[in-house]
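Second attempt. The first submission of Glutamine ABC transporter permease had a stray character pasted in from the spreadsheet, which I only caught after the job came back as garbage. Lesson logged: always re-copy from the clean sequence file. Corrected sequence (212 aa) follows.
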Amino acid sequence: MIRIFNNFSSQLFSGFGWTILSSLLTLVFSLIFGVLLALLEVIPNKVANKIGRTYVEIFRNIPLLIIVMFFYLIVPKYFVKIDGFTAGTIGLFLYTSAFIAEIIRSGIQSVSQGQMEGARSTGMTYKQAMRYVILPQAFKIVIPPLGNQFVNLIKDSSILAFVAGFDLMYQANAIASVTFDTFNSYFVIGVLYLIITMPLSYYMQHLEKKMA
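This time the job returned cleanly.
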């Protein structure tokens, strides 16, 4: 393991960086888009409800690899040229957004209806009540599943290896093909994934206790 790390440290750090970048981009944009989708599902508008629900059902029930391959193979051929990293990150974003939307939606719907009625009775508009009363409470409720989804997102980023995304898993495959030391190559990568996911997991646990 030490030999693998010493001999291929530059590749490993490069893969580490690409994995972090893809995960951060996906996390930020999927959280924003996921909240918007969740709002579409709960606002009193049947057309908006249908749009939000359709998106969620489609992307939750299609394998991530198929979504990524669509952007890696079909989009460059018929629409616009994009590299493997971009294709993988877009696919990961669309896929993760659907799961985050469901988490946020469940949080919103678990807040008592009386909270909305109380906010409206004070003169707030629906938008203000959602922003200042409902969503803050919903986020407190969904911190545990949201944290789990963020950890899963980092692990799912290994999908970039299938589209030459230069992430940690891609580097593991490259190193294993050169050294023929499959066990140690993937063991090192596993340790690096833990370095990313464990602090996030502990932070989400701390945040959950703090917000309780």
